[in-house]
Amino acid sequence: MTQVRAKDLTDDFLTSKGGLVIGKQIENLLKLNPAEDVELSFEGVEHLAPSFVNGAFLYLIDNYGDDYFRSRIKVINSTPDVAKTIGGSVRTYIEHQKQFFSLLKTDKVFLVVDNKEFDRNLAIKLGEISNSKGFVLLKNPTPGNFSEQTQGVLKDADVVIGVLNAESQSSVFIKEMEYALGLNKQCIVLQRRSINQRLSTASLSRIQVLYYDDSDFLELLAKLNKILLSNRNDIVHRPNKSMERKEETTTAVVAFLAIAVLVAIFFALISSEENRKK
Amino acid sequence: MNPVISIAIPGKADKEFWHSIIDSIRSDKFNSASIQFDWSACTQIDDISLCLLLNIIVECESRKIRIFNAPLNPDSFYQIKVYPLISFPINNLDTNEIKSHAFVTAVNDDEKALARVELMKKFLGNHELLRNVDTSALEIIFAELYMNVCQHSSLAEIENGMVLISVDESHGLLEMVVSDIGVGIPANIKEAFEAFEDECDAKAIAYATEDMVTTRNTEQNYGRGLNTLKTSVVSLNGELDIFSGNGHFSIRSGNENHMELSCYHNGTQIRLLFDLSNFEMRSKSDFSEEVNF
């Protein structure tokens, strides 16, 4: 267990900037010592603001997920007020995220990818499998080009998933995601952690960003797969067919995990291709 | 037609003058009337007077008392000196501590947030009434609102706002007014949320005080500021008024109200009123809790 005193890292317990100093330090410690959990002491901190909690803890939940956060980070030596503010803010945020995903309609998914060639290949591979399970992956008719046809298909989607893999992502990716947000579509962005790009206008009620890097991309896809399948109308709302539903769900999960493996291979190929060019 | 009460501002209006107007307003002397200020004789105004004038504007708004100025020419003292300072942030103030009655500071630099919280604490500590009181809620409110103004008003690329805090020792009351001239809360909400395009401004303000509602996609901005404010006001049994655009949102005894204003309010003004007897006394801290997620 790595122990850290919050007061050694910052004097600012009132703003999100102050919190981010803590959040990033915890992140560094977890990266440096992956086998060790972090124990954060708030000894001497009389009170703090919810905005501080945003920077310190919600930052970590966004980047690593709530399960990881809860299992790796412990907060001790706090006053009742501080414990209440931190605990309350974190629990509220996690609940908010869960609600976002539980309300997603996911029969028709439009996939936005920042790489033209990858987009074409991925769409072909996914389309073959998804159509056979009644799960509709809407194909971008003009990948790499934000055309009227693309807009038309996008309008038909229940949810739009964007994969942001490279810093030099195309402006088309941004256009497509912001167009989707403008249509009030629910959006999920899978974003590589090293990328600082943020969509210019976003409401937290319409978008969730899930972060990844090469080491946990598969895990992230599995999580996304679970979310999408659990919200499928034809699976969720079919009465008295629980056994059939389970089998169908299991088959769909297996199929999607297979897709996830393919996607991971694609990313690895692209990544090594880019490294080779450098 | 409402009667018009004309008030001539003297050459060097001091704080007693402005206090007398505030007292008259609060004792309902001006209800069902309009107030007209005559600035023609005024040649000087100090910082505390500006704060008190701001107080008067807020009081009149909440009582629906129309307040306006007698016809002014462009060279008048008011036009040149006063109006720019009221309408726009007080640029010649960096930080300012007024030891008698009010603390006022500009809100124009997020890097100075903590320093200004410290000044506020010092001001509060000068009052016997507040010496042993736990004022942490006020520090949090101040910081949240300060950063809110910096984050939202910075888009307009203009100087931001101001904060006024005053303590009424005889009645045991503390008032905080945070004022800015950004685009206003309703405009921000309506731009970000299509559902509010046709809603009234007051409902848009009410929505902005809900948890996790944010219109700014800056790092670690999750829409907590106004909700924190609302929670603190309710837990301390305080009063809250938010004026922005044509909307007025208020909280009294924990109950929320919203209504449309007859006149348009430029930017946003947030007024908080607390009875200091509702604050807890400072106590020895216990650092033994572990957070349960």
The tally of strands of chain B reads: 9
Distance between the termini of chain B: 60 Å
- What characterizes the major β-sheet of chain A? 5 strands, parallel
- The global form of chain A is elongated
Mean pLDDT of chain B: 77
Q: Strand portion of chain A, in percent?
A: 5-15%
- Note the quaternary state here: heterodimer
The number of distinct helices of chain B, counting runs of at least 4 residues, comes to 8
Which overall shape of chain B is indicated by the principal axes computed on the Cα atoms? globular
Number of helices, counting only DSSP H or I runs of 4 residues or more of chain A? 11
Strand fraction of chain B: 25-35%
The helix/strand class of chain A is: alpha/beta
User: What is the tally of beta strands of chain A?
Assistant: 8
Kindly provide the radius of gyration of chain B, computed on alpha-carbon positions and rounded to a whole number of angstroms. Answer: 19 Å
Relative helix content of chain B: 25-40%
Order of helices and strands of chain B: EHEHEHEEHHEEHHHEE
- Tell me roughly what share of residues is in helical segments of chain A: 55-70%
Return the average pLDDT of chain A rounded to an integer: 76
Please specify the SSE layout and strand pairing:
The complex is a heterodimer of chains A (278) and B (293).
Chain A: E1 2-5, H1 6-9, H2 16-32, E2 38-41, H3 50-64, H4 66-72, E3 73-76, H5 80-102, E4 108-113, H6 116-132, E5 136-138, H7 148-155, E6 159-164, H8 171-182, E7 186-192, E8 207-212, H9 217-230, H10 233-236, H11 242-277
Parallel strand pairs in A: 1-2, 2-3, 4-5, 4-6, 6-7, 7-8
Chain B: E1 4-8, H1 15-26, E2 34-38, H2 47-62, E3 66-69, H3 77-87, E4 95-97, E5 102-107, H4 113-125, H5 136-153, E6 161-168, E7 173-180, H6 185-192, H7 201-208, H8 225-235, E8 239-252, E9 255-275
Parallel strand pairs in B: 1-2, 2-3
Antiparallel strand pairs in B: 4-5, 5-6, 6-7, 7-9, 8-9
Helix pairs in contact in B: 1-2, 4-5, 5-8, 6-7
